[in-house]
Design goal:
Layout lengths: L1 H33 L6 H8 L3 H5 L5 H31 L6 H22 L1 H12 L7 H27 L8 H15 L15 H15 L4 H16 L15
Length: 255
Amino acid sequence: MVHLKVVPDDRRERSREKKRQRFLDAASAIVDREGLRGVTMAAVADELDCAVGTIYSYFSSKAALLTALQGQAVDLLAASFATARERWEDQLAGEELPDEVRTLVEVLGFGSFWSAASVVFADEFELQRQLLSAKVTLVSAEEIAEVMPVARRLLDGPAGLVEAAVAAGALADGPAEARVLRWVCALNGVLLVENLAPLDRHLFRASHLARCLTEDLLVGWGAERRTVEVAAAHVDRLAAGGPMAPPPEGPGWDR
C-alpha cells in the first residue's frame, strides 16, 4: 500500500516539473528574441497560449521565474567549465607542473573561460550578471531561499579553484568566497567594455582587460608575478587546443 501511494505522488511531481520547465523554456525563447526586458508573466502566457494565473501556480512572481532561469544559466555555465577542465586535464597530463603553477593555471583558465562564455553563452551570461547586479525585488522568504543557492552555485566553482591555490601555497590565505565575489563581479564589469570596441579595438579589448584583471588580482592575493606569467603561458596553450567555453557534455546536456 505504501508503494502504491508513492508512485502516483512521484508521477504527479514529474508531471508538475515538466509543466514548470515548459514555462522556463518559453521564458528562454523570449530572452532569445527580446532580451531580459521582454520577460513578463503576460509574455510567457502569450508564448504558451495559457492563462497568466496558471503560471502563478508554479512561480509566485516574475522575480521567482527569473531566479529559476538564472539557476539554469548558472548550471549551464558550470557544466561548460567542467567540460573545459576535463580537456585541460588531458592536455596537461604529460607536463610535470608544480602544484602552485597547476592551480594558478586553473584559476587563470577560469578567467579565460568567463571571457569566452560571455560571447558563446551570451544569454546565460547576462542572466548571471543580472543575478549579481540587479536590484533585489524579492518579496517573500521563499523567494529569498531560492536565490541564495543559485548565487552560491555561481561562486562555488571558482571558490574551489582559489582554495586549491591557497592550499598549494600559490596564494596567501584569505576568504575564498569573498575574493571570488569581487573577482566575478569585476570580470562581469570589465567585459562590458566590449561595447566600446567599435571606438578603439585596441584600447577596449575586453578579453585582454579581463585577463590583466585576473593576473593583477592573483598577485594582490600573494602570487609571484613570474609564477602567474608561467601559468598564463600554459593557459595560452590550452586556448590553442580548443574552445575555452565548450558546449556542456554529460548527462542532461546532450543536444
